[in-house]
Amino acid sequence: MLLNHYSDFILECGTDEAGRGCLAGPVTAAAVILPGDFSLHLLNDSKQLSEKTRVQLKPLIEAQAISFAVTHLEPLVIDNINILNASIKAMQESILKLNPTPEYIIVDGNRFKPLNQIPYTTIIKGDSKYLSIAAASVLAKTYRDEYMDKIHEEFPMYNWKKNKGYPTAEHREAIKKYGTTKYHRMSFRLLPEQLKLDF
User: Fold this and answer.
1) Which of 24, 71, 81, 145 has the fewest CB atoms within 10 Å of its CB?
2) Structure confidence at residue 195 (pLDDT)
3) Do the Cβ atoms of 36 and 43 come closer than 8 Å?
């Protein structure tokens, strides 16, 4: 059973990201403030849910949330500041979009940076412990999947509709065959046998 709150603050937001380990596409974060009486059957860490369930949960989370926000950070930003910093930045930008401003932040994982003096706690596997982080994980994942489906139309040969930019054998084969696109993260090791790409 997921818990509703970590702190004693009413306006507590949960935040999480999706797409950290991908070779292409943005890193996407979401932040969610849920009401104290929030309950949603099936809600869990997005990785434990089927795509169908995540898609069903998304509008239900959005309808019940006090506030929610989603941010995509492009590969160029990821390459400039690295994936950890980009993940934190995407979470912070999502939190800054929330209205009302949260009084407390709970973050999935073990890394975060102070934001406008709002107290926060990082929670390892937080998306399987707290409802607001689980809700953020579902929104981050569904919004990112929609984004990847959209850019798949532009570059169908990488099959992002299916692999969502993750390093599958098929995705790596396509990079080998067709090279890279503006959506690829050039700071990542795109091909296992190459330490540096030289297209």
Assistant:
1) 81
2) 46
3) no
- Name the pTM for this structure: 0.94
CA 76/CA 56 separation, integer angstroms: 32
Helix, strand, or coil (residue 17):
strand
pLDDT value of position 193: 65
* Res 105: pLDDT: 98
Q: Which residue has the tokens 């532009």?
A: 154
Which residues of the chain fall below pLDDT 70? 193-199
Q: What are phi and psi of 120, to 5 degrees?
A: -145, 160
**Both structure tokens of 73:** 């950070």
Instruction: Compute the C-alpha angle 27/70/172, nearest 5°.
Output: 25
Residue 40 is classified by DSSP as -
Q: How far, rounded to the nearest angstrom, does the alpha carbon of residue 40 sit from its chain's CA centroid?
A: 20
CA distance 61 to 42: 11
User: d(Cα 159, Cα 178) in Å, to the nearest integer?
Assistant: 12
- What distances in angstroms separate CA 77 from CA 80, 99, 143, one per listed residue? 5, 26, 18
Burial of 3 per CB tally in 10 Å (0-12, 13-18, 19+): exposed
pLDDT for the residue 199: 44
Is the Cα torsion angle 161, 163, 165, 170 positive or negative in sign?
negative
For the beta sheet containing 67-73, the strands, ordered from the edge strand earlier in sequence to the opposite edge, are 67-73, 27-33, 12-18, 104-108, 120-123
**Residue closest to 113 by CA, chosen among 134, 140, 84:** 84
